């Protein structure tokens, strides 16, 4: 049984051990944010100089239909920093014009900050390439996936989701949680949603080896499933299935109760987070657990890449949020918003890491573990 008092301390200890060789300067997170946003500011400003202002940001920056929302998202971030003026109707009235020297300094700051935060050089290359490619990304001449998985390699994705201090900490802490469950009951029935490249899966599997566990690895992408099947071929207890959790889960899973549901950097893609959590609660055993890793604040450093990954697929339906993000372009929930949505689904939080005073908290990525409350009502 998960023990709320001991579990967070044990998970935090293993997370710290995974990054004890790294000295992270949290102020570099802000420096990286501003450097990336300055590059976006320059791009928007040059586009704005070609049109009559005030104007709808979507009409200022040429974009494919599925990406038209992104310009407004950027302009709101620029306005929040005082770099753009937006009127009450959301029209862009003016935008800052960075000097060449500032832009050169920003490019250097991206490289220095990425290195100082413990990320591999591949991530700085990806960020700079994304900024250069903004016009082509917006018009779909280049896709964010092509930049992230250049030449079908995972080096850049691993730099973003695995080979860095914050993800090493989070993955080690997550593995500690899974190990605690294994000690309590032996083999586990595990469902991972939106498993992607398996960056976290790889750190969870050693705790499950030889325990008689069953692990259902799911994703929306057949490519990820194929690659994961090859990457984890030595783990016979893994199964792979195409699952779209923006659709009802139970008909796709059809497995009964799970001891553990894992969702790493993916649950925010649900159009209605409280509904997703209610569905997950309905798939858990009474003593099961939901393990989430989520970004709880949208940093400017992600604005040159992440929005393109969140746009609807070509020819697909527009993404319409029906939860507390409805009517906005927000991507992420805050930590308290996740806790509230989970409570509404009959789940109570037993882990929230890293602690707020830890340097890695500046990244705004959090490990949250929820267990069914004694008062929950199961979804039929």
From TrEMBL:
<dbReference type="InterPro" id="IPR050508">
    <property type="entry name" value="Methyltransf_Superfamily"/>
</dbReference>
<dbReference type="GO" id="GO:0032259">
    <property type="term" value="P:methylation"/>
</dbReference>
<dbReference type="GO" id="GO:0008168">
    <property type="term" value="F:methyltransferase activity"/>
</dbReference>
<keyword id="KW-0489">Methyltransferase</keyword>
<dbReference type="InterPro" id="IPR029063">
    <property type="entry name" value="SAM-dependent_MTases_sf"/>
</dbReference>
<dbReference type="InterPro" id="IPR013217">
    <property type="entry name" value="Methyltransf_12"/>
</dbReference>
<keyword id="KW-0808">Transferase</keyword>
<protein>
    <submittedName>
        <fullName>SAM-dependent methyltransferase</fullName>
    </submittedName>
</protein>
<dbReference type="Pfam" id="PF08242">
    <property type="entry name" value="Methyltransf_12"/>
</dbReference>
<feature type="domain" description="Methyltransferase type 12">
    <location>
        <begin position="191"/>
        <end position="290"/>
    </location>
</feature>
């Amino acid at each position: 049984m998960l023990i709320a008092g001991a579990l967070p301390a044990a998970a935090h200890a293993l997370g710290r051990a995974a990054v004890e060789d790294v000295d992270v300067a949290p102020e570099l997170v802000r420096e990286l944010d501003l450097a990336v946003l300055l590059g976006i500011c320059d791009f928007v400003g040059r586009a704005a100089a070609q049109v009559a202002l005030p104007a709808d940001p979507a009409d200022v920056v040429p974009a494919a239909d599925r990406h038209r929302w992104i310009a407004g998202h950027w302009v709101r971030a620029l306005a929040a920093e005082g770099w753009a003026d937006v009127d009450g109707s959301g029209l862009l009235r003016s935008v800052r014009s960075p000097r060449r020297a500032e832009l050169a300094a920003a490019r250097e700051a991206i490289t220095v900050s990425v290195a100082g935060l413990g990320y591999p050089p591949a991530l700085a290359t990806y960020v700079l390439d994304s900024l250069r490619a903004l016009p082509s990304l917006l018009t779909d001449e280049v896709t964010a996936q092509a930049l992230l998985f250049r030449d079908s390699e995972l080096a850049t994705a691993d730099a973003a989701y695995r080979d860095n201090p914050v993800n090493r900490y989070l993955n080690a802490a997550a593995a500690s949680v899974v190990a605690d469950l294994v000690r309590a009951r032996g083999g586990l029935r595990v469902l991972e949603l939106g498993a992607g490249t398996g960056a976290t899966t790889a750190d969870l599997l050693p705790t499950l080896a030889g325990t008689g566990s069953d692990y259902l690895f799911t994703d929306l992408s057949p490519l990820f499933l194929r690659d994961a099947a090859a990457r984890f071929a030595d783990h016979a207890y893994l199964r792979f299935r195409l699952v779209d959790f923006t659709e009802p889960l139970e008909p796709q899973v059809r497995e009964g109760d799970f001891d553990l549901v894992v969702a790493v950097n993916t649950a925010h893609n649900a159009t209605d987070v409280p509904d997703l959590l209610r569905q997950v609660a309905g798939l858990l055993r009474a003593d099961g657990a939901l393990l989430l890793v989520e970004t709880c604040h949208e940093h400017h450093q992600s604005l040159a890449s992440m929005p393109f990954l969140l746009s609807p697929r070509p020819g697909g339906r527009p993404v319409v949020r029906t939860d507390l993000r409805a009517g906005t372009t927000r991507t992420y929930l805050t930590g308290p918003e996740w806790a509230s949505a989970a409570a509404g689904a009959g789940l109570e939080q037993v882990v929230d890491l890293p602690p707020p005073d830890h340097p890695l908290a500046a990244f705004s990525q959090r490990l949250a573990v929820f267990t069914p409350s004694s008062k929950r009502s199961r979804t039929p």
